[in-house]
Amino acid sequence: MDEPGLQYPGEALRSWLRQFAKTPVAEPTLKLLVVLADTVFFASLGREEGEATRVRIAYHAQGLQGLQAVRETVYIGGQKGKRQAWETLPLEPKSSITDFSVEALVKLAPAAHLPRTAVVVGPREGKLRIQGLARRVEYTEFHAEGEEDVFILHAPEPGHLVVSTQGREVFRYEQGAPVPPGRRVALHDLLFHEDSAVRAALMEMCSTLVESLPKVQPLMGGNREWYVSNAVQGLIRKMAGLHHGGLIALLPKQHDVERFRTRGKYVLPPEQGSLLRQRLQRFVQARADLINGAWQAEAGKAAEEEEDPELKKAAAEHDDKVTESDFQALVESIGQFTAVDNALVLGPELEVLCAGYQIAIPRSGPPQVFEARTLQGRPGPHYPISQHGSRHRAAAVFANQHSGAIVFVASQDGPLRCLHRPPGKKKVLLWSLLLTED
User: Fold this and answer.
1) Fewest C-beta atoms under 10 Å: which of 53, 279, 283, 311?
2) How confident is the model at residue 91, as a pLDDT?
3) SS3 for 308?
4) Kind and range of the H or E element at 406?
5) Pairing relation of β-strands 406-410 and 379-383?
6) Can you give the pLDDT at residue 78?
7) What local confidence, expressed as pLDDT, does residue 178 receive?
8) Where is this region: Disordered (predicted)?
9) Class of residue 199 by CB neighbours under 10 A (exposed 0-12, middle 13-18, buried 19+)
């Protein structure tokens, strides 16, 4: 690239790994990653059937066999076990079709345009080859054995490149340069970490819901707060995955929620507004019945009953799966509303109020916004929110007008972001977010 300061993604990745990688990367691996990065980057500039090519590849030095050896730790029926982390679909070698090239990736990329799915690339006969497709099972909180050798290279938008490993983004390239490390916080940390100001605000606005949920053995099924954070994370992920841009606003308590309901363009009937909360409660109850019951039986605490324990366990497992599926389907449906113009608004206790809510931006413009330097919300430098379009400015206005509210915004001009003005504070804070590899 002739323009000063611009680097090809492969060069940028090499420099970044040499400077920031926690463990040194061998030169042969560096060379391979440079080739992978540049090929994915240029493939992302192509189009197939008029659509931008969103390329995702999974690289392992042993190709498909390496992915098949990765094992994920899970709890099944209260018992700790292992499962294959990647579901793979091999392809027979075929000249020009499975050769690793920009053209081949552009053609095959739509087949991998599914959550956590990638084109598998690995060495064969001394050259990089496309070896098949693979889909990662959903990530858990536990370390997966053998996944440290898997690199995911993903182009979420034309000309962008994201490199991740073990479900965590480690490198991002945009607008001809790498995004400096440390400028983004993981969405997961923002919603789940106990030190997070946003998590604290979410738990405050959903305190009654949290108290209504049954307790689940934490090491097996997550605590009650986890399920609330997970529900919000699902909505945000759906919004981000639509690649359309969107805005989700969560209101704190002590607000006239009916005012928002009446001003939204698309409104759920009042009796349906609690549906998300109700589905979550049913799901967590089923999960508690399964996990707590299995745990008590293991500890010898279950009461003697005439009914076959195995049948009871099978019924509990079925209820767990059905209620989780129903809940996730509703999250997907509600998240889809972010594709329409303006904001999806949720009230306290995850009450779904409306979609298409227009946030008026005053003539004086949006308020001042400051980058958050920490999860706790320590204010950093002033953030030029006015450089963005109306969606970002509306998010800043809403966060400023409603102390304690949480606003998530997705757009084409940058990463997912969160805005929040902590109660009793004057500054609107902004976190730029990164997503666990989806």
Assistant:
1) 311
2) 94
3) coil
4) strand 406-410
5) unpaired
6) 57
7) 86
8) 300-320
9) buried
Q: In sequence order, what DSSP letters do the residues of 23-88 get, joined into one string?
A: SPPPHHHHHHHHHHHHHHHHHHT-EETTEE---EEEE-TTHHHHHHT-EEEEEETTEEEEEESEEE
β-strand 86-90 against 127-136: which pairing, if any? antiparallel
Identify the sign of the CA torsion 10, 11, 16, 17: positive
Give the closest residue to 176 by CA, choosing from 424, 305, 3.
Answer: 3
**Domains in the chain: ranges and CATH:** 9-179 (no CATH), 184-434 (3.40.1700.10)
In degrees and rounded to multiples of 5, residue 207 shows phi and psi of -60, -40
Ramachandran quadrant class, 218 (left: phi over 0; alpha: psi -120 to 50; beta: rest): alpha
Per-residue confidence (pLDDT) for residue 305, from 0 to 100: 56
pLDDT recorded at residue 241: 84
Helix, strand or coil, per DSSP, at residue 131: strand
Inter-residue contact 157 to 168 (CB < 8 Å): no
CB neighbour class for 319 (10 Å; exposed up to 12, middle 13-18, buried from 19): middle
What is the reported pLDDT for 438?
43
Q: Give CA–CA dist 187/163, Å, rounded.
A: 16
Q: What is the pLDDT of residue 4?
A: 44
Dmax (CA) of the chain: 79
The total number of residues shown for the chain amounts to: 438
Query: Nearest 5°: CA angle at 162, between 68 and 44?
Result: 95
pLDDT of amino acid 400:
97
Q: What is the pTM of this model?
A: 0.75
Strands across the sheet containing 127-136: 86-90, 127-136, 117-124, 56-59, 151-154, 161-165, 168-174, 177-178
pLDDT for res 125: 82
SS3 call for 186: strand
Report DSSP state, residue 180: P
Query: What angle (nearest 5°) sits at the alpha carbon of residue 201, between those of residues 199 and 204?
Result: 110
The vertex-212 CA angle with 259 and 261, nearest 5°, equals 10
Q: Please list the residues that pair with 371 across neighbouring strands.
A: 430
Residue 335, token pair as written in the block: 């998240």
> Which residues, in sequence order, are CB contacts of 28 under 8 Å at separation 6+?
none
Mean pLDDT by runs of 10 across the 438 residues of the chain is: 67 87 80 93 87 88 93 71 90 88 92 87 90 86 82 89 84 83 83 97 97 80 88 96 91 86 89 95 94 60 62 88 96 96 96 96 94 95 92 97 97 87 96 75
